[in-house]
Amino acid sequence: MSILVDKSTRLLVQGITGNEGLFHTQQMVAYGTNIVAGVTPGKGGEWVLDGKIPVFDSVRIAAEATGANTSVIFVPARFAPDAIYEAADAGIPLIICITEGIPVQDMMRVRSYLDQKHIRLVGPNCPGLLTPGEAKVGIIPGDIAIPGNVGVVSRSGTLTYEVLYALKMVGMGVTTCVGIGGDPINGTSFIDALGMFEADPHTEKVVLIGEIGGTDEERAAEFIADQMTKPVVAFVAGQTAPPGKRMGHAGAIVEGGSGTAADKIRAFESAGVRVAPHPEAIPEMLA
Amino acid sequence: MKLHEYQSKQILSKYGVPIPAGRVAATAAEAKQIAEELGGRVVIKSQVLVGGRGKAGGVRLARSAREVEELAAEILGMEIKGLPVRKVLVDEAANIETEIYLGITNDRSARKPVMMASAAGGVDIEDVARETPEKIVKVHIDPLLGLRDYQARDLAAGIDLPRNHWRSFGQIASALWQAYLNCDATLVEINPLVITAEGRLLAVDGKMIIDDNALFRHSDLAEMRDLDIEADAEIEARKYGLSYIKLDGAIGCMVNGAGLAMTTMDIIKLFGGEPANFLDIGGGASADKVKAALRIILADPNVKSVLLNVFGGITRGDEVARGILSALSEVKTSVPMVVRLVGTKAEEGRQILADANLITAESLVDAARKAIAAAHGA
Fold first, then answer.
1. CB crowding B21-51: b at 16 or more within 10 Å, else e
2. How many other C-beta atoms are found inside a 10 Å radius of the C-beta of residue B134?
3. Which of A102, A138, A287, B5 has the fewest CB atoms nearer than 10 Å to its CB?
4. Domain residues of chain B, as ranges?
5. pLDDT tens-digit profile of B24-73?
């Protein structure tokens, strides 16, 4: 069992003929993900991966032809908001946007539109989802995690891989890993993912990986204290980050004395959540 | 990207916000000429991208053209918080009766823009927010609807603005929203918006920050970037699509992904070292990018060892390894390097690097410890 993606996922890839789209389509198919279609406007009728996956001009046509129920987006930032609207208007209920660098005002409009339609977006600027042994949707390397009972939710990309890898090294497996992305405005929050893990019977414990900026970790801490029965171990990146500097992610910036790692760690600890000193310390804290 | 006051005010003026007559000058003679054209009292304001210009003596009132020349010369020679003053704005001085704050920024938690007004304008609004939050009135703006007229009226009423100014305040609020929207700003701010003795509303200061991610559709704004606030290495890094921030430690870091880069810095510190920088080579970094990154790190004379931590996803270990080899063939260095490659094509990467004289590491903690030891002259 898992959350969001599993064996029943029928995946569509938007931007499938681009460099990154194609490379990661290969990786996802090799993992066993059921990819039913790709979309690249102007390339409808072509096939990729030696004729295995049909390419369509639009999400609507692709969804009608193949019954796709999930879309993953690999298109450049300037076209990504349109790709999200297109998937939403085609009735795709779960959209995962990997694209980095989407303007924040675009994301505010996107989020507002999706909320009205009750469509779930994961990302943008995220590594996607991995349900080990069932489906890999996005760019998380498949071989760094094994099936198990730990739910993982993270704002980061490669830092998430570190944690999955550290868990695997000691034989601990994962139900689903959810990369929610590092942007200031995203589709799925920590709280959304925590709620799904709490409801998932196979998830027995949860790892939350946060970083500086915003107040999502503080709100997650409150949610854990009020609503969760399963144990949570947290890690917060950016303790050494100087304030006022943008640390790569649009989201990872400490402004006006709030959003510091120290604040977040304090919030978790006062909510009874154990905080790991570094990612490789997480497995023994879960055991 | 922050804009200067004079740039922000020019943009706001284009959208219909009333600003004082004035122009920007790069020399004292120019400043004097502008003052003569304006006549009467003027304010000379240093144009640097830091707060606290007034306290530092970078904003002065002048009564005569001669005084303008003297003060402008003085201000143009100043450094404010380490930044050289290269330009001054010479503005007609306003007869200020009341100072208001009006601004729009992004509220991350609400996932909407928020417009804020306060009757306690003119001072640091963050102080007001912390000490007397009840003095700030806020309205959230639906990003699909935009600012509605009634919302501006609610703000005017909320700060007890006399009714005779409501129409003008509404026009300014609407102009501010249009500027925020059309420039992809993350902040637009008028502080203070003053009521003059003549009974007019006037924006005597203005501030805008533009979303870096949106600059692709604002080439005119992108050209306004002031490079003074960034270290040369940070500018060089941006050319290659790298995100680099110089710090004071001895261990250079090259990592893929911002979260992992910050974590690598944190672990170095946790085990007793000090990171020399933050450097994110981003997703899918090519060999060229890696080469540029290594050059930038090694250009910092404080760097005593380098820690390369790459966890492959989009980024491929073999590409990174080729970049390292290519950089090492160009930049001769005796600085020891610790390399940790995991994930996509990591094995291929390790093979490519097998003959180079590098220290390898398995785990993050192992890598940090080795880099710290190497920096201590091991």
1. ebbbbeebebbbbbbeebeebbbbbbbbbee
2. 7
3. A287
4. 21-92, 96-222, 232-375
5. 999 999 999 999 999 989 999 999 998 888 888 999 999 998 999 999 99
**Residue labelled with tokens 């990207």:** B1
Q: Which of A141, A158, A250 sits opposite B256 (nearest CB)?
A: A158
Specify the CATH architecture of the domain B232-375.
3-Layer(aba) Sandwich (3.40)
In chain A, whose CA is at the least distance from the CA of B183?
Answer: A105
Rounded CA separation A240/B264 (Å): 10
Residues of B marked as catalytic: 101, 189
The residue in chain B having the minimum alpha-carbon distance to the alpha carbon of residue A109 is B143
CB B297 within 8 A of CB B277: yes
> What pLDDT digit, counting tens, does each position of B180-207 carry?
999 999 999 999 999 999 999 999 999 9
Chain A residues in contact with B262 by the CB 8 A cut-off are 211-212, 237-241, 247, 252
pTM: 0.92
Distance CA B227, CA B238 (A): 11
**Which residues of chain B make contact with A237, given a CB cutoff of 8 A?**
259-260, 262-263, 266
Mutate to test the interface with A, among B127, B266, B267 (most CBs of A within 10 A): B266
Backbone angles phi, psi at A37, to 5 degrees: -165, 160
The alpha carbon dihedral of B225, B231, B233, B238 has a sign of: negative
User: Residue B108 and residue A178: Cα distance in Å, rounded?
Assistant: 20
CATH architecture of the domain formed by B21-92:
2-Layer Sandwich (3.30)
- In eight-state DSSP terms, residue A4 is S
Q: Flag if B258 and A256 touch (Cβ within 8 Å).
A: no
Distance from CA of B156 to the nearest CA of A (A): 25
**pLDDT tens across A166-198, in order?**
999 999 999 999 999 989 999 999 999 999 999
> Using CB atoms, which residue from A113, A159, A248 is nearest to B263?
A159
| B294 to B66, B256, B299, B355, B374: CA distances (angstroms) | 52, 13, 9, 18, 17
Instruction: Name every chain A residue with its beta carbon within 8 A of the beta carbon of B109.
Output: 214-215, 219
Domain B96-222 belongs to what architecture? Answer: 2-Layer Sandwich (3.30)
Q: Which residue ranges form the domains of chain A, and what is each CATH number?
A: 11-122 (3.40.50.720), 140-286 (3.40.50.261)
The rounded distance, in Å, linking the Cα atoms of B207 and B144 is: 24
Which residue of A240, A246, A280, A284 is the best one to mutate when testing the B interface, meaning the one whose CB has the most B CBs within 10 A? A240
Spatial separation of the C-alpha atoms in residues B26 and B4, rounded to whole Å: 14
Token couple for A179: 């990369």
Nearest CA-CA distance, residue A187 and chain B, Å: 10
**What is the tens place of the pLDDT at every residue in B287-314?**
888 889 999 999 999 999 999 999 987 7
Q: What is the percent of chain B where pLDDT is above 70?
A: 99
State the ipTM, two decimals. 0.90
